[in-house]
Recover the amino acids of this structure.
């Protein structure tokens, strides 16, 4: 008797992580593989099947990334300055993470951020807000689903005396509360739903460092006066004209915003009309005036003056009564 035997092998997979899969198979997923054999005996189809099942274990991984696009600019002595981080559960099951912050000593000129605390970015602004929730270890550790993330802030005060362009660096670390340590370590039954927890390549812990950069500005302010008396002398007599020169010289990498210079006209003198100049040019009323913005005084609005700007020279005249 001749027998024609045909063998068909098929794999029926409930969920598999293969090339191009969008996400890791969630912990607890049951993967079923069915192999079947089909053949003919005397013209009759016969078949047999066998099964192999296994459950996907929980892989423990986490990433921490610093979210600010550049060093966070801070000024000497400023408070509640925030660095923004994102903690992401890159494992395949629900996990909770303990957060810690630590000072990192940068190279070159540096300062030490003070009174640092960790907050949830509750307001979603990326900067500290009164509505942001304080993180307390063991009380409100972020619990994240697979691929879930939480934006966190390290909020610090900047010490007085931080040098211009100096750096302060803080590191945020997130550590899995399910399992952590050497990659490949297995915590039997420690995963979600009682599956094993397997420590992934991150060791169940990750960190990132954020950077503050102090930007300072200093203003050197000088004033001088020259006298021109009637007849060409230089004695401060009645009728003599006094020319005052005020020079504002900035330095540093920050900007002095809304800078206004005010100089009261001395008693027993009279302001000389239209004598006010800035850098050699007569000032427009919106920029400078006498007795308008401030009664009895010359006022010049320098606006936002960068530390890299050139010296600003203000001149005006009064006549001795």
């Amino acid at each position: 008797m001749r027998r024609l035997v045909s063998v068909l092998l098929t794999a029926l997979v409930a969920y598999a992580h293969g090339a191009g899969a969008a996400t890791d198979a969630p912990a607890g997923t049951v993967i079923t593989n069915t192999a079947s054999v089909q053949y003919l005996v005397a013209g009759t189809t016969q078949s047999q099947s066998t099964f192999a099942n296994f459950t996907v274990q929980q892989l423990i991984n986490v990433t921490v990334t610093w979210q600010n696009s550049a060093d966070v600019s801070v000024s000497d002595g400023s408070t509640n300055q925030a660095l923004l981080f994102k903690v992401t559960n890159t494992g395949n099951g629900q996990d909770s993470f303990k957060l810690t912050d630590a000072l990192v000593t940068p190279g070159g000129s540096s300062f030490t951020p003070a009174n640092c605390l960790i907050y949830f970015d509750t307001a979603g602004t990326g900067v500290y807000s009164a509505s942001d929730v304080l993180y307390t270890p063991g009380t409100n550790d972020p619990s994240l689903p697979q691929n879930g993330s939480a934006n966190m802030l390290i909020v610090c005060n900047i010490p007085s005396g931080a040098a211009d362009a100096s750096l302060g660096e803080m590191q945020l670390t997130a550590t899995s509360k399910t399992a952590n340590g050497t990659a490949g370590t297995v915590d039997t039954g420690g995963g979600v739903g009682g599956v094993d927890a397997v420590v992934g390549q991150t060791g169940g812990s990750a960190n990132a460092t954020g950077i503050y950069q102090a930007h300072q500005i200093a203003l050197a302010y000088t004033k001088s006066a020259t006298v021109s008396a009637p007849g060409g002398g230089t004695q401060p007599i009645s009728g003599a004209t006094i020319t005052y020169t005020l020079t504002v010289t900035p330095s540093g990498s920050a900007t002095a915003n809304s800078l206004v210079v005010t100089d009261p006209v001395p008693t027993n003198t009279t302001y000389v009309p239209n004598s006010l100049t800035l850098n050699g040019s007569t000032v427009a009323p919106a920029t400078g005036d006498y007795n308008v913005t401030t009664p009895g005084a010359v006022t010049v609005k320098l606006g936002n003056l960068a530390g890299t700007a050139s010296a600003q020279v203000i001149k005006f005249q009064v006549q001795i009564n």
